[in-house]
Amino acid sequence: MNKMELTMNIINLSAFDNSHYYKEPWEWGIIHGLVSHNWIKKIADEVKLLNFQQVASNRSDKNYSMGLIALQQQQVKSYALNELIRELTSDKYLIKLELFTNSKLRGREVEMNIWRYSITDHLSPHVDKDYKHLTQLIYLNESWEAGYGGSLNILGSSSEDDIFEEILPVYNLSPLIKNCKNAWHSVSPVSLCAPSRYCLQIIYKD
User: Fold this and answer.
1) Model pTM?
2) What phi and psi, each to the nearest 5 degrees, are found at residue 133?
């Protein structure tokens, strides 16, 4: 990498100015255009080469199937991804995110994962575990068609049909979920014709 690339800003802090944070049906938001297209492509190209662990559960309260890389448990040799993580954990970024979500985030323990949803992978309607205060997702797909499934569904209740908002997993959208007892959400099954769906998950813990 040359010096010009090393000094590039991956995160567009002005993205917060044109984004929205909602209070209904519970607190959630979407940041538009947070990461530049060129950097998303670099990160996605690196992430696709990583070895994901397939995880699944058929519990009564939550069932899912997807691939996982827990970044705390393994070092990932990905220049672009690590540069993004460095900026996401900077005070400069966290101050913006705190103002946007009305949350105190600096000083909290942070967990980061990369998730891969392939054919039929899904996440049933659920509320996050109590230790999660705020979760941010950064999608790594350049494009995604509605017919592919794999959307993040903001739900008004535990019913998978009670969809308040459907968010396609494309790179210029970064959803935020503030945890509470009624913050129901899900990921619809990825269709047979879809490519793999990738996202970086950042969890700010209570």
Assistant:
1) 0.93
2) -95, -55
